[in-house]
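Exercise (ungraded).
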Amino acid sequence: MSRSVGRNVVRKDGTAKAVGTARYVDDLTFPGMLHARTIRSTIPRGRIVRMHRRFDAAGFTIVDARDIPGRNLVSLIQEDQPCLAEGEVRHAAEPLLLLAHEDRERLLQAQVEVEYAPAPALLDARESTHVFKEIRIARGDLDTGFREADLVVEGEYRTGHQEHLYIEPNGMIAVPEHGGVTVYGSLQCPYYVHRALCVLLDLPEDKVRVVQAETGGGFGGKEEYPSIIAGHASLLALKSGRPVKLIYDRTEDMIATTKRHPSTVRHRTGVMRDGRLAAMEIDVLFDGGAYCTLSPVVLSRGCLHATGPYRCDHVRVSGRVVMTNTPPNGAFRGFGAPQTLFAADVHMERIAEQLGMDPVRLRELNALRPGDSTATGQVLGADAAALDVLRAAVSRSGFHRKRRAYRGTGRGIGLSLFFHGAGFTGSGEVKLKSRASLELTPDGVRILVASTDIGQGQRTVHAQIVAEALGLPFEAVEVAAADTSIVPDSGPTVASRTTMVVGGLLKRCAEEMKARLGALTPRAYLRRHGPLVITKQYEPPPGLVWDDDTYQGSAYGSYGWACDVIEVERDPVTAGTRSPRRWSCATARWPTAS
Amino acid sequence: MRTAISPLVVKQPRTLKDALRMLRDDGPLTPLAGCTDVYVGLNFGTLRDARFLNIWGLDDLRGIDVRGDVLRIGALTTHAEIVRSVLVRRRLPMLAAACREVGAVQIQNRGTLGGNIANGSPAGDSLPVLAAAEAFVELRSAEWTRTVPFGEFYTGYRKSVMRPDELITAVEIPRVEGAQWFRKVGTRAAQSISKVVMAAVRASRPRIALGSVAPTVVRARSTEEALAAGGAIEEAQRLLQDEISPIDDIRSTEAYRRFVAANLLMQFWTDTAPRGRARPGVNRRTR
Ligand SMILES: Cc1cc2nc3c(=O)[nH]c(=O)nc-3n(C[C@H](O)[C@H](O)[C@H](O)COP(=O)(O)OP(=O)(O)OC[C@H]3O[C@@H](n4cnc5c(N)ncnc54)[C@H](O)[C@@H]3O)c2cc1C
């Protein structure tokens, strides 16, 4: 039987990208297409008094909030974000007005002057009283833990905004057709866009079609924001009756779209003289920006990783994500966890310092092991590999020898140990009810999923899984475009769930298909029995119980474990650092695409 | 958001003479060389000029040669050409070192020495080199050619003695005696604008110039004098603090710039300290 998994196969998207025939959204064009532009607020907070058009409107399509047929909101978690600001401005670069014209140059020349009544902006999350979401995780009894502790170590850790910087900026084309609209775009989650458009445009599901164009990177940055761009392009398309292309240039993309949530994390930790953690009190504050977007879920993952991969009987994590008058923050690789993991592991270093203890030893002592339970009470299985990755990284990097040798020089070596929950948090996957389909073709099979290939290799990995399970050559597996008119809702392409969850569904589809085929070739089966499509829906693994109200139970189906080691050199002239060498040891889910 | 380009006027002279005549008769026109500075404004929609003179095709303004004992570099010479030039590497290695740290390869292939000078940013990386080398800027109009000592070229923040009907045609650099030194300190190893940049020459009378620490590139004259008189380096570091006037801005802070400037001076002095046989060449650190 041909092996596909674990073998180096030719990427499904490789040739087209290498020879330049892959078509990104800006490569697409439609007859009669207009180009679009977004007029944005230039102040962080205030009221729009008036908008003055300083151009000849001939040939322009102009859309403001009054042109919205459905509800003026970006449908996601809370219904607080308008698709176009109406009266009130809550952040700089907020969309106010949309223009479209056949001639790009005319479009760029058009001037709109906005008169505001500015209001004082709230820019510091620590001063905000507008809370989008609060989370509390409690285990054991904090007071008992601190009473037992020999020493209390405190620390505060902050991180700032971060931009995804996918190579291809955001963009969408909306085409009015069949009494509805079809959008083509650079995006991660076709069904998020689909749902947002139905609400905004007041259209039934079958009148909205979302098709992913080849996408040049996402990293979370094309998870929720594309819903806004698709909405804008569609409003213009429906009003003008013509296809409308709306592409952001790098500047606009940087200024307007989501960033990683800035964070302030405070740790207060009770430790025993021998290094064991007795109590962990952790306070997490995320700056959500002006609207809620995905902030509650980002905060959730942040809080669930806040202890780092360490065990402790008495834990309290209190998390808050608040509003400020800055552009909304959103999904970004790691989704809240990198911020809290950063704090947790820098804090471990501080504890080691205060105890005068070897930082590796401190981590070894406290690292979660198989059979241990996390702050939410999840008992870890045999795959809890914190110790393995730690020891591998320490020995490969020569950590101890270098640590000794570098003492008192301008060089140093440090490490961080971390874990990451794979898939949606808690009952997320159960609620998603993801589906995946496999269709028999004369030469093999075709994969039908809403998962998107954004450069990470989804098409290749899914094809490998299916080929392997069916015992077909990799080349006999096609992957259909992520087009909501033909693929089922497999959930969003986020949270390291595409290989594990959707790949798992496809494996089940393939296994059933294999059984149905029996000894027949696909061609022979089709001739004898007609078309065959197999669809599977997510079923939670047994024993996975999660309670959203108490934050107790199994937060994730499985975890990845990793340890990074880095050497740094301090330049005494600039006080800057350089890192000549680094090591990463992690549990891999996929040999070539993880 | 980008500036619309269709209303922009771009004149295409065939010869330098043509270009200078257009500047005189049809000005004001903004010269376009490699456009690496001009395009930033175009991309951000902040470009104010609307009429341009494209001088990129004027090959007379290209090239590097030595006339008498003077190194002459045409205004349109790119940073990449300077880095590759054996003449520059031999005679003015600190300029090659500076050009090697401008932006990254794309910018070096397109950005010109004349553009770096005319743009007049206090962070321009070639400028401290030209100041320390006591170069001359050759300016030409339809009527005259004049040569201005580099130290007299700038009159204030992004202001110079160049008139709107003049072009920079070349830079001339007399022979530089002594060990040359250059170091740029930016946020990253590439594509970063200097927080502090310093070029210096170790000779009986040292020459020290810094960028990004004042409204224009500056020569640290009192510091130089103190060192020439055999003063202690610590004293020179103190004097340097009085000669620079850095500010807090998006790239750095006054305090950091002062700290780094003093450290760069020390590093220059240590790196170029005479040890037995004098070593030719420039000390170059990448960072
Ligand atoms: C990504 C990026 C990174 C950069 N990094 C650096 C860096 O690290 N260090 C640095 O110093 N600079 C940097 N720059 C700025 C720029 O590349 C340099 O200043 C470059 O030398 C400009 O040359 P140019 O030929 O492209 O100038 P242009 O953009 O063509 O012109 C700049 C200005 O000079 C005028 N001008 C040009 N040539 C002449 C002439 N012969 N006579 C009269 N006026 C003239 C123009 O009218 C214009 O006002 C960077 C720019 C970018 C976009």
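Further reading is listed at the end of the chapter. For now, observe: The CA atoms of residues 36 and 111 of chain B lie 6 Å apart. Residues 254-271 of chain B form the longest helix (18 residues).
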